[in-house]
Design goal:
The chain is α+β, with helices and mostly antiparallel strands. The chain is about 30% helix and about 25% strand.
Length: about 250
């Protein structure tokens, strides 16, 4: 997972350096997410994200594939961010919501440091939520942001465990997604992985019980259910753009 996707100039948050900095939280601008066609997702988000986006898996299963939501057909496109920076879907992935903050490892250390993207135009010294308060202490706003970052980091571990189980059971297969018009495929997305339903159906009762007890079976079906969003989200876009009959998504 590319933790620094969206971040143009990340730097460690420092009370001395960022004293007086504030963050505007009214009418948030999501323009920072407009230039990507996929967004990383944690497994805890599957049930809710599945209502809005197709959830697939990117990367090679034997080298650490990870879940993402597809938000555009072209590599620099997100159809859920409009020209004014508004988010158009009802669910906003946590990867997007944590911006402009992020936890990142510093070179040569495994300790996590809170960083901010100083290019985000929601930062100012005039209005918004203060980052630090008296005596350079974290504000309640920053404490809540840091709590969210820690929870997101913890969810990343559960996501890795889920992906390892899919690998162990050999459930992932490469698929092409075809967007159809009038019953004919006019656009093809490639290089994604999904859970193969036939392989899932061949698991033993004990394997299925184990998946169910850990909450993994629900996640798998949320993923499979979400794939219907591929056609629903993008068929009208294909017709409007008059895209070529074959294309590969990055």
């Amino acid at each position: 997972m590319n933790q620094l996707l969206f971040y143009q100039k990340p730097e460690p948050l420092n009370a001395a350096r960022h004293r007086g900095l504030k963050l505007t939280t009214e009418d948030p601008d999501f323009s920072f997410a407009a230039g990507t066609n996929s967004i990383p997702l944690a497994v805890a988000e599957f049930p809710r994200a599945a209502l809005d986006f197709p959830i697939v898996f990117a990367g090679q299963p034997d080298k650490g594939a990870s879940p993402i939501v597809i938000v555009g057909l072209k590599s620099n496109e997100n159809i859920f961010v409009d020209g004014k920076g508004a988010w158009l879907a009802s669910y906003i992935p946590a990867f997007v919501r944590r911006y402009p903050f992020v936890l990142a490892e510093q070179p040569g250390s495994k300790e996590l440091t809170v960083m901010i993207d100083v290019t985000y135009k929601g930062f100012s010294v005039e209005r918004g939520q203060p980052i630090f308060v008296d005596n350079d202490q974290p504000s309640e706003f920053l404490k809540n942001a840091m709590k969210f970052l820690r929870e997101f980091h913890e969810q990343a571990q559960r996501t890795r465990e889920f992906m390892q189980e899919l690998k162990n059971l050999d459930l992932l297969v490469s698929r092409q997604f075809q967007i159809a018009q009038a019953g004919k495929p006019v656009f093809t997305l490639r290089d994604f992985y999904v859970v193969d339903e036939s392989r899932l159906g061949k698991l033993s009762d004990m394997q299925l019980i184990s998946l169910s007890r850990r909450g993994y079976l629900m996640l798998i079906y949320a993923h499979l259910f979400s794939l219907a969003n591929m056609q629903k989200n993008f068929s009208k876009l294909v017709e409007t753009l008059k895209l070529p009959t074959q294309a590969a998504a990055d």
